[in-house]
Structures are given as structure tokens and as C-alpha cells.
């Protein structure tokens, strides 16, 4: 059983939902990436989504775009992201790490080499935003062979046919994009999310996490009531931006702790 499966199984036994925070590796500075990962765990993270910075992050809103720009300006690369995960694994053998990014860095690295090096570093899952399931059967198989879960997105516009495609080649969990737009957008329709999740869960047969547009503890709690996981990213990046770099780990832990508490209170009812 993978670290991701183990995490969801343990949470289900406890009647709790997964909190999956996102940060961009190398933002605001590579020296702070490991302290920030520790801060996420201290705040209650069950799984960490670690963004691989890219120059044209088309699914990301301006907040995460800025984070990518800062990380790239400091020389962050996919190779350095893997080195960061390797360092994290020296002190944390249990918290799953999912790399989230775009196809270009993976293709430039080489899919086989990436699968080998990511597995050796301790990566548990990979979500490549611009790899649609119908075009990456081989990629997903390569990841699974390396004991890495290939994770896919579903959106409000996804069809039941797409649900089936994702169910066939994906593993770990599904990332449901809760709204039409980019990360950090507003206008989250919680009622629509509540209607969609049971159908998706039935069709794909794996946990469903919800992200995009979740900006506060109250919204996270409402999502936790219907989904298996809550993914939050842009709000964390904003917290990093709002204070000094040295203060950012403590600020992130405080933010996440409040979200974790609200989720646990909701699911304990």
C-alpha cells in the first residue's frame, strides 16, 4: 500500500478528511522550502502538494504564477525539487509528497529518468496539469511501475466518459477542480460540489480531493463535509507574501492549523 493510500485509509478509520496544502518549491527562496514543508506538517497537513515552478503555468492564477516566477528567479528546477524531497524524506518518512506541475519540465528531464529519480527521492504522486488521460497511458504506467501514483484532474465540465478514463489509469486520489477558471478564483459553488462528489467517487473508485477557490477555514470545513480531501494553495502563497520571508513558516502553520481545526470540527459532528 502506498503512502497516499495508507494516509487516506488511516483518516477514514478516524472519520477525518485529508488536508492537502500546496506550496511552490523554491518560493519565496529555496532555503525556506524545507522549513515551509515542516510548517505544513506542523499545521496539520496530511499530504503535501509541491509545485514544480514553470514559466507558463496556464492553470494557475496570478498568485501561484508569482510564486513560480520567484522560484525560477532563484534557479529552482525539477532536479532541485527532487533534491528537496530527498532532504525532506531524511526526517519525514510518512507524509506523502505529490509533485504538481506541467509537462515541459518532465519531458525535458526524460520520463523514464524522472520516474526513477522521483521514486528514489521519495515522491509519492505526480499531477501533470497538461497531461490529459487519453494522451498519457504510457506515462501513467511508467509512474505506477516506479510506485508513484499518477493523479488526474476532473472539472465541472468533465463528462462521465472522462471519469471512466481517469479511473482506468489514475491512482492515489482525484483532484476535482471546483470551479471554471484558474487557481485562486472566486465564485465557488459549494452546492454544485456537493452534487458532483458522490458521482465522481462512485465512478472512479478512489478518494476525491477538492481544490481551487478554497480560501478560508469555513469553506474548507464545508468541502470536508462532502469530499475526501481539501486542497488549498493560493491562500497559503498569499500568507507567505504578506510577511517577511523568515516569518513565513510560522505564519503558514498558524493559517493551516485553523483550517485543520475547522475541518475536524465539521467531520466530528
Helices, strands, pairings?
Layout: H1 3-14, E1 18-24, H2 33-43, E2 48-51, H3 62-73, H4 78-89, E3 97-101, H5 103-109, H6 111-121, E4 125-128, H7 137-145, E5 149-150, E6 152-154, H8 160-169, E7 174-177, H9 190-204, E8 208-211, H10 217-224, E9 229-232, H11 234-242, H12 248-267
Parallel strand pairs: 1-2, 1-9, 2-3, 3-4, 4-5, 6-7, 7-8, 8-9
Helix pairs in contact: 2-4, 2-12, 4-6, 10-12, 11-12
Short description:
With 269 residues, the chain is α/β, with parallel strands linked by helices. The protein is 51% helix and 14% strand. It has a single domain (3-260), classed as Aldolase class I (TIM Barrel).
Major sheet characteristics: 9 strands, parallel
Helix content: 40-55%
Number of structural domains: 1
Output the number of helix runs: 12
Could you characterize the architecture of this molecule?
With 269 residues, this protein is of the alpha/beta class. The protein has a single domain, classed as TIM Barrel, CATH 3.20.20. It has 12 helices and 9 strands. A 9-stranded parallel beta sheet has the order 5-4-3-2-1-9-8-7-6. Helix 4 packs parallel to helix 6 (111-121) and helix 11 runs antiparallel to helix 12. The longest helix is centred in the C-terminal third of the chain and has 20 residues, at 248-267. The radius of gyration is 17 Å and the shape is globular. The two termini are 30 Å apart.
Amino acid at each position: 500500500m502506498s503512502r497516499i493510500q495508507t494516509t487516506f485509509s488511516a483518516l477514514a478509520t478516524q472519520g477525518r478528511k485529508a488536508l492537502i496544502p500546496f506550496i511552490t518549491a523554491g518560493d519565496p527562496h529555496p532555503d525556506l522550502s524545507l522549513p515551509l514543508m515542516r510548517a505544513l506538517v506542523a499545521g496539520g497537513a496530511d499530504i503535501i502538494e509541491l509545485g514544480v515552478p514553470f514559466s507558463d503555468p496556464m492553470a494557475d492564477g496570478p498568485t501561484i504564477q508569482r510564486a513560480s516566477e520567484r522560484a525560477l528567479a532563484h534557479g529552482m528546477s525539477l532536479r532541485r525539487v527532487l533534491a528537496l524531497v530527498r532532504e525532506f524524506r531524511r526526517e519525514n518518512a510518512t507524509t506523502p509528497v505529490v509533485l504538481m506541475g506541467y509537462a515541459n519540465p518532465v519531458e525535458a528531464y526524460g520520463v523514464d529518468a524522472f520516474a526513477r529519480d522521483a521514486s528514489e527521492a521519495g515522491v509519492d504522486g505526480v499531477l501533470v496539469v497538461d497531461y490529459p488521460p487519453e494522451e498519457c497511458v504510457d506515462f501513467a504506467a511508467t509512474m505506477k511501475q516506479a510506485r508513484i501514483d499518477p493523479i488526474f484532474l476532473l472539472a465541472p465540465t468533465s463528462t462521465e466518459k472522462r471519469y471512466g478514463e481517469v479511473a482506468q489509469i489514475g491512482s492515489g486520489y482525484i483532484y476535482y477542480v471546483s470551479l471554471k477558471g484558474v487557481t485562486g478564483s472566486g465564485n465557488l459553488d459549494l452546492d454544485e460540489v456537493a452534487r458532483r462528489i458522490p458521482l465522481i467517487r462512485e465512478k472512479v473508485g478512489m478518494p476525491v480531493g477538492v481544490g481551487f477557490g478554497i480560501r478560508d477555514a469555513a469553506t474548507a470545513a464545508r468541502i470536508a463535509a462532502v469530499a475526501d480531501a481539501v486542497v488549498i494553495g493560493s491562500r497559503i502563497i498569499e500568507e507567505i507574501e504578506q510577511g517577511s520571508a523568515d516569518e513565513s513558516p510560522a505564519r503558514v502553520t498558524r493559517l493551516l492549523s485553523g483550517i485543520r481545526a475547522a475541518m475536524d470540527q465539521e467531520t466530528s459532528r
